[in-house]
């Protein structure tokens, strides 16, 4: 299995925070224990992904450089699981 950590960046700009990023910040406390050493979660002041015409995509999360819109705890966990599965892990 690849040793590189999965990098999760949660946008905490005003729109993202109000539309669900606050819940996403709980990921570290609710993810499976065996993920905690291979997933690096950070809060970013703003990913600059939204504008007046695409606030509907908030909250935004960047996972290993790939931007995810309308992120939820479930969708982020699904993405982590798929990355690990592709690496040959759990």
Describe this structure as you would to a colleague.
By secondary structure, the chain is α+β, with helices and mostly antiparallel strands. 33% of the residues lie in helices and 20% in strands. It has helices at 14-24, 27-30, 73-87; strands spanning 6-11, 39-44, 61-63, 66-68. The relative contact order is 0.27. The model has no long low-confidence stretch (mean pLDDT 91).
Q: Any idea how many domains?
A: 1
The tally of beta strands, per DSSP, is 4
Largest sheet: 4 strands, mixed
Spatial order of the strands in the main sheet?
2-1-3-4
Distance between the ends: 10 Å
What helical percentage do the residues reach? 25-40%
Which structural category fits the helices and strands?
A: alpha+beta
Structural key phrases:
single chain, 90 residues, alpha+beta, 4 strands
Topology:
Blueprint: E1 6-11, H1 14-24, H2 27-30, E2 39-44, E3 61-63, E4 66-68, H3 73-87
Parallel strand pairs: 1-2
Antiparallel strand pairs: 1-3, 3-4
Give a quick rundown of the structure.
With 90 residues, this protein is of the alpha+beta class.
